[in-house]
Amino acid sequence: MAQFVESFLQALTAGLLTGAVYGLMCVGLSLIFGVMRVINFAQGDFMMLGMYVAFYAFGLLGGHLAFGAAMAPYLAALIAGPVIFLSGIAVHRLLISRVTGIRGSALESEGHYAQLILTLGIALVLQNGGLYAFGSAPVSIATPLSSSAWELGPLAGDSVSVFVNRGQTVAAAIALAAVLAFVALMSRSRLGKSLRAAADNPEAAIYMGIDVDRAHRLAFGFGVAITAIGGGLLASSYPFQPYVGLEYVIVMYAGVVLGGLGSVAGAFLGGLIIGLVQQLSTLFLPNQLQNTAIFVVFLAIVLLRPQGLFGTAARRT
Amino acid sequence: MSGGSRAHLRRHAAPMAAFLLVYAVLTAFVENSYYQLIMTVVPVWAVMGLAWNLLSGYSGLVSFGHAAFFGLGAYFVALTQIHWGLPPWFSIPLAGVLGALAGLLVGIPTFRLRGHYFALAMLAYPLALLYVFEWLGYQELALPMRRDAPLRYMQFDDHRLYAWLALGLMGGAMMLTGLVERARFGMSLLAIKQDEAAAEAAGIDTLAWKLKAITLSGAMAATIGGFYAVVLLIVTPPAVFGMLVSAQALIVAMFGGVGTLWGPVIGAVVLVPLSELLHAKLGNFIPGIQGVVYGIAIVAVILVAPEGVFWKVRDLSLRRRAPRALPDSVAPVRAEAEPSTRHSVHDRVPIFEVGNAPVFEVRNVSKAFGGLRAVQDVSLTVTRGEILGIIGPNGAGKTTLFNLLNGFIRPDQGQILLEGHSIVGSKPYRICAAGVGRTFQVVRPFRRMSVLDNALVGAYVHAASHRQARAAAQAALAQVGLSREMHLAAGGLSNKQLRLLELARALAGRPKVLLLDETLAGLSARDIEEVTSVVRRLAAQGVTIVIIEHTMPAMVRLVHRFVVLDHGAVLAQGQPAEITRNPAVVDAYLGRRWRAEHA
After folding, report:
1. Mean pLDDT over the full length of chain B
2. Tally of CB atoms within 10 A around B219
3. What pLDDT is recorded for position A308?
4. What is the bridge-based pairing of β-strands B544-548 and B387-391?
5. Measured between beta carbons, which residues in chain B are less than 8 angstroms from residue A292?
6. What was the pLDDT predicted at A62?
7. How far is CA B466 from CA A236, B52, B195, B459, B504, in A?
8. Integer Cα distance of B322 and B126 in angstroms
9. What's the rounded Cα separation, in Å, for the pair B465 and B183?
10. B131 to chain A: which residues are within 8 Å by CB?
11. Of A50, A229, B30, B459, which residue is the least packed, with the fewest Cβ within 10 Å?
């Protein structure tokens, strides 16, 4: 019994910590869907790019940091943000803007498929191009923090104690801070207002003098950048390779759909829950089936409650 | 299968046979075993593309998960040979059965979803299976070599035999697609792709057709997956359940052209050798080149020719041929000159006088959306052959009333009776079959299909055979005066002709009651004359008509009776003369200008 309680608490802690990072990743995806109504298939691959940017940035930073190697992985993750932001802007301008926005809405349902399939193509190029650029061997960002833990406890009796990984805790804290900063940006700034207006009613936004194409471009850039930061944070505790995006694209969609497509707070909570599901499933299922558990949860959500746990309006299109 | 699809197949038969023959002969000259493998995988991916196309290309529901069926087929063939020594000659067809079952099982829950959600849910199936098969310990299954009975186990020394077998499977898949394409099956799927709601309203049981499509599609994908296992001899989860498998199916079909039996074949013939050869030449320096090729191909297709090479080429060649077809289309429409009733099947139908028994009765129907009471306690009766006009300001609940009448939404309370039988709670396609046809505010013809085929979609409700459906469609076109345009593409019709075509589509289902939603909107005065005379003629033949319209002068002359709706409730009903003088109606709807002009 004590053994089970301990492993339960351990999984719970791990779930909350990874869940916070998943939550951040989901917020990025949700921003893109909320503003552009585009399902971005390549989100996981932008995340993968973010991981590699963080990996190389860490390599460069490593020894040169005055305040020690401990903080370098997190700084590297934050560097991934602006780099991926710029590449997102470029991809949007060159490719995605041709089938979305005002031009895309004229295509109605065919337009949606065009977007979906276009982002699939981008995903294939990124994944397989990544194989060429980065090689197929898994890499990870080694940091002293990710192999050390705080021990909480003994909590009940003298046998139950929980180990909290320090690296993951710092990552979760940064993820939470990033989400809060993003929420503040969206609700306070002029940029946030124009993004929300463009999301709400693109046509009316145009009449109010908002450049909707620019709003979409920025949403796409911010969306992939936020996810990339999440990827960078994850990179210090999990090894990764160029195909890693595919696993996480489902994790992200599960979280976003769980929270209700288009809601920022919902997306974060959704990601958190997916992290919990993934970690708690290890109590009952073999490790290899972690992702299957997520897919099953995802299918159950879309089939039973497509508006999400926190959403109200049923929009299945 | 039906006569129409057999005729259609005959038209495709010659190019199909020629293509297969050339391919088979070319294969005979290939000696290098690597090229023989390429000759084999081209038809394999063509079949995979055809399987995807059968569901997604025709119905428009994009699947990212066809690898699920492919992988199940591959593992089934591998496992049954390893454990039970089952020869592929038996296990491949059985894999097809398994794929059909899997398709049905996936379809039943997943078709509750539409659009993006459907696509994403489909993606989850193969990825979930991938991890399950890894967990089961099937990371790498090798089919045992059977030197004792190579032919029995499809282990040929001459690898060209694989290519020929694959070619045979591809020929079969193309024939199947050809049979589906122009039959009721394919027409129903196309109608779903265009507008699922309109398809339901035209009497198509959309769920049933979608399930049939995914069952057949799953069977095709699993069959070819099983064959693929035999060719490669090694099965791994990423190779058969991986993302690239689903993506490749989608990409060869999209590249070549969706919704046509040639599309996936063209896509596979171009893309598979290209990516394979690049992989062979550059794979050592550039791993993943195949994925890059497919990725770039699909990005380019979406940007340049979103519907694929086949349609692009066809549209271009039709444009070049267009001048020759022109005299036909600019010839004066003779429909007005000859009363089209003469050659319609409706001479069996006696001419009805208004005032017989009620056909359609609506009793105290209400519907609220949240706090908005869209329709409140509406009652009305229509008798056979009557033309009832429904008018009222925008937002008065007119279209909502139609949606209640044809079953798109269910009333909160009240009764709707068609010839005395309640139709509340029936599905739209059943209500259509029971005799309620409708048109929509926005005309949505199938632009690439001919006028006749457009009408045909609506004709299957009451037709036992393709021949009967065709006759009904032709009769309906004659009734509205579109017989001459029968073989033109619907995309080339004028606005008025499109309205008539929609009318014909609804008529082809032999409705007792026809609900017309703003059929005259956006037409010129002369066109309105023409369309209203068609409507009047239909009523004279016994079709009961309920029409929503804003064009008052035309309506006053067309209808027998008006029902005026305002804020979801009946404001007034009666003869045109009474209604146009009713002060409440003038205030709520017609306006002061009307009073000034008609006082």
Report:
1. 84
2. 26
3. 66
4. parallel
5. 128, 131-132, 135
6. 66
7. 64, 26, 22, 9, 17
8. 46
9. 10
10. 288-292
11. B30
Does the CA dihedral B268-B270-B275-B278 come out positive or negative?
Answer: positive
Long-range contacts from B12-20, C-beta under 8 angstroms, 24+ separation: B12/B174, B12/B178, B12/B261, B16/B171, B16/B174, B16/B175, B16/B178, B19/B265, B20/B167, B20/B170, B20/B171
- Hey, is the C-beta of B131 within 8 angstroms of any chain A C-beta? yes
**Residue B7 sits at the chain A interface (C-beta within 8 Å):** no
Question: Measured between CB atoms, which of A99, A132, A295 is closest to B302?
Answer: A99
CB contacts of B442 in chain A (<8 Å) are none
Nearest residue of A to residue B287 by CA position?
A: A132
pLDDT at A41 over 90: no
Residues facing A150 on adjacent strands: A164
User: The whole model's pTM is what?
Assistant: 0.83
**Angle at the Cα of A211 (from A209 to A216), degrees rounded to 5?**
145
Amino acid identity, position B185: F
User: B462 Cβ partners below 8 Å, 6+ apart?
Assistant: B433, B472, B509, B510
Q: What is the pLDDT of residues B480-509, one digit of tens each?
A: 888 888 888 887 888 888 889 988 988 888
Substitution target in A119, A120, A258 with the highest count of B β-carbons within 10 Å is: A120
Complex ipTM value = 0.84
Burial level of A176, CB count in 10 A (0-12/13-18/19+)? middle
Contact A306 B113 (CB under 8 A): yes
Residue A74 makes CB contacts below 8 A (sequence gap 6+) with A170, A171, A174, A233, A236
A131/B287 CB distance under 8 A: yes
Q: pLDDT tens digit string along B199-231?
A: 888 888 889 999 999 999 999 999 999 999 999
Least confident of A208-222, B274-288, B375-389: B274-288
Q: What confidence score (pLDDT) does residue B351 get?
A: 44
Q: How do beta strands B387-391 and B561-566 pair? A: parallel
Let me know if B197 is exposed, middle or buried by CB neighbors in 10 A (0-12, 13-18, 19+): middle
Which pLDDT belongs to residue B89?
Answer: 94
Give yes or no for a contact between B301 and B254, defined as CB atoms under 8 angstroms apart.
Answer: yes
Question: What are φ and ψ of residue B68, in 5° steps?
Answer: -55, -45
Report whether A202 contacts A102 (CB < 8 A). Answer: yes
Helix (H), strand (E) at residue B273: helix B263-282
